[in-house]
What we know:
single chain, alpha/beta, TIM Barrel, two-stranded parallel ribbon, 11 helices
Amino acid sequence: MFPVSDGHSDFLYGAVQSGYDMLQPKKEQTTRLEDMLRGGVALQFFACWIDTTLQTQPLHQCIAMIDAYYRMLEEHNEFVPLTRDFTPESGKIATILTVEGGEAVDGSMAVLRVLHRLGVRAMTLTWNENNELSGAALARGNKGLTAIGRDIIDEMCALGVAIDVSHLSDRSIEQVLARATRPIFASHSNARSVYDNPRSLSDEFIREIAKQGGTVGVNFYYLQLGKNPVACIDDIVRHICRVVEVGGIECCAIGSDLDGMHQYPRDFKTSKDFPALFEALLKRGFTEADIYRIAYQNLHDYIVQFV
C-alpha cells in the first residue's frame, strides 16, 4: 500500500448542507474515515466550496465550512493539521484547509488575511462562473484576471496561500503563471490532450506549472476523464500517464474530487479504492518509487512550503 495525498474533497460542503459525518456516512457520501484509512490516505485537502446558488453570503458559507473542519479535527483524533515534520508513518491523516471559489474573500485583502490566519492554505479564484477576481473555465468569454484579482494574487503570494488554477479560464491561467511569485498548482484538473474538456489543462500549462515547481492533481470526474458515459480506473491512468509524460514524474499528483460529483468511475467509489489505482499504475510500468511520488510525495512536498 502507498500513502496518498489527495488534493481535493468537498466533504465540508456536505457536512454543512447535508449532515455528512465521518463515522456515520450518508449513503451518497464518499469521504469516509474508515475508507480513507483502508485506502492509505495520509494527507487530505478539504475544500470550502462556495455555492453561488445559495442565498447565504459566500463568506458566511466559508466560515461555516471552516467551523465544520475544526469540529472534525476535534471529534476525530485521526486527523491533524499538516506540519513540516509530518510523516505518513505516524498513522494519522494530515489535513489542509482550502477555499474553492474566490467569492469567499469578497474582494478584500483583510478577509483573505483573516482566512489565512484561520488556516486556509490554498484557494481557487473561481468555481464555474466568472467573478470579481477572474474568468472561469466553464464560463463565457475566456476572461482573465480583474484588477482586484491581480491584487489578490499578489497578496496570496505574500501570505503563503497556494494559488490553485483548477476551474480557471485559459487566459486567467496564463496571467497567473506570468504574475505569481510562488509555484502554483492545479488541485483537481486533467490533461486536455487526453480528453478535450475546458476544465482540463493544455500540455503547455502542465509543462509550465511543472517548470515553476507546481503540481497537477488528476481528478476522477467522468465528464473530464473521457467521452464514455461510465468512466473507470483506466481512464484515470491515461491522464496520469499524460501529466507525467508532459510535466515529469515530479509534477503529477492526485486530486480525486470525492464528494464533488454525482457519478464515479465504476471501479473507484471511495478512498478505499486507491490501491486498485496504484495496482493499475504498476501494470502500466510505473515503478514503486514513481507511484510513491504520484500518490503522496509530490503534493506533500509542494504544499508543505505553505504550512
